[in-house]
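Figure 2 data, in text form.
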Amino acid sequence: MSTIINGTSSAITFPDSSVQNTSAIVSGYVPYANLPAGSVLQVVNASSTTLVTTTSTSFVTTGLAATITPKFSTSKIQIIADIPNYNLASNSGLMITIYRGATNLGTGAYSSLYQSYTATTSLYTNCIINIQDAPATTSSTTYTVYFAALGSQTTGVFQNGITGTITLFEVAA
């Protein structure tokens, strides 16, 4: 995909074939309101290495959160989280989800950890979640990663200082 800037006319052609008159450029930038749908308007990310464990089968916070203030109420927020996690006992696992404020955005994305293995062996893996949200606001909005144990065995995130991340992309609608 390319952006074409025509040197003989005052126009920019975007990858979706929309054309923007360059007379709308202000101080060298195309205003956000003039960008085509699908354009990334801003990116926010956060990370954590703080170990959190639980035996709870109800969702608890990992402490990993990022806050974004959408430029438009029509924008979509694409959320990508990479959560290193582990289980310490046989027949255990975990479920990971994303909350917007107090609202669970899904029923949980199961990590591939619910399996049987020996109690003397810990299982370490990453769970990647990719969710799109439509918060319909221009107010500051916080997205937080939560997790729960499947069964009553100990499970955790960010073991041994391994970094977990959450990245928010505001996408023009």
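Caption note: The chain has a mean pLDDT of 82.
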